[in-house]
Amino acid sequence: QMQLVESGGGLVQSGGSLRLSCAASGSIASTKSTGWFRQAPGKQRELVAQISNSGIINYSSSVLGRFTISRDNAKNTIYLQMNRLKPEDTAVYYCNVEFIVQSYWGQGTQVTVSS
Q: Among residues 27, 32, 47, 77, which one has the fewest Cβ atoms lying within 10 Å of its Cβ?
């Protein structure tokens, strides 16, 4: 069983930046994919950014050019650098780690962007 702990969320003004971190309790080196999702009030959870095991990175069109996902296998940590934040980025952000047969989620971290 893998535990994921997100940190780095908070309140920021429009145009500001935040860096989210997701610390995994085990190795992420052999994962199928690692990524970040978000869920705003009254909306479905959506993909923000994801790295496949082959290194292919996929971003939501709404964050492309503003957000950067990265991972440090040595530290078992996944990051999401968020720049030029907008009020519509306000949501709970969840870290996700996918193996072939199992998927793990963090508890979520709140990001609030004020206008």
A: 27
| Residue-level pLDDT at 53 | 87
Q: 3-state SS of the chain?
A: CCCEEEECCEEEECCCCEEEEEEECCCCCCCCEEEEEEECCCCCCEEEEEEECCCCEEECCCCCCCEEEEEECCCCEEEEEECCCCHHHCEEEEEEEECCCCEEECCCEEEEEEC
Could you read off the pLDDT of 20-41 as tens digits, one per residue? 999 999 999 889 999 999 999 9
β-pairing, 91-98 with 109-114? Answer: antiparallel
